[in-house]
């Protein structure tokens, strides 16, 4: 297994190449808006020629979406960003040449469905990539979220040293480990495949959307029962949004899930990471060694240590 390290060098060619490896873009005019917003942040932008394709729910056929990834490896810009999430990368994983992806030295960014790409790249090459904004989802709006935009720029320029966030009631923790994870459903979908990273002593972070709290609990327990959680130093929970509880739940909700997980997984659980299917989202390196500490209702994620 090749080890690739293109760590946090200042990006020479400050541009973003946009691909659509997952769901179709519903409002193509948002691409124009996103391009303008990214240019205002100081990035050049080039959109792959097949980004607007539509086939069923996908941004073009599997082979066309794969071609977009392949083109992204040979174009001049340093950053490759997914247009949006949705579903589609699971179909492409066996066909993606992850060694070529790692050797390209490109910095990949996306979230949601893109978690499959982030984790497969890490599992197969050890290469760091990023979870953060997607072009259309986060920048294809009139006014992008200030925190999301600012943190994305800082992380891409290698300027973010410490991310602090409110984390009330979190377990005490002070340690270092490989940061990994992303969308919980996508992470769990890779268990038992060659695309699931074998991380020991890591710091796992997860988020999800449209999943009832019992499904969140079930997925976290699947990671626990598979022996994954016990091998990590800590579990960080981002935002879990857009679900509905019913009368049958009788008070069972995300708080119940967190309480149960905290009692049963045997590792520190830290909440409040500003990451998820939310307007405000941090950009994080997947596969990089980070520090994490909690103190007095706050958590501190050390992205760069000098």
Automatic annotation (TrEMBL):
Domain of life of the organism encoding this protein: Bacteria
All copies of domain LD-carboxypeptidase C-terminal, residue ranges: 176-291
InterPro entries named among the record's database cross-references: Carboxypeptidase_A_C_sf, Class_I_gatase-like, LdcA_N, Peptidase_S66_N, Peptidase_S66C, S66_fam
Gene3D superfamilies: Class I glutamine amidotransferase-like (3.40.50.10740), LD-carboxypeptidase A C-terminal domain-like (3.50.30.60)
Statement: the UniProt record of this protein carries the keyword Protease: yes
Domain LD-carboxypeptidase N-terminal: 16-132
One Pfam family hit: Peptidase_S66
Keywords assigned: Carboxypeptidase, Hydrolase, Protease, Serine protease
Annotated family: Belongs to the peptidase S66 family.
Protein name: LD-carboxypeptidase
Organism this protein belongs to: Orrella daihaiensis
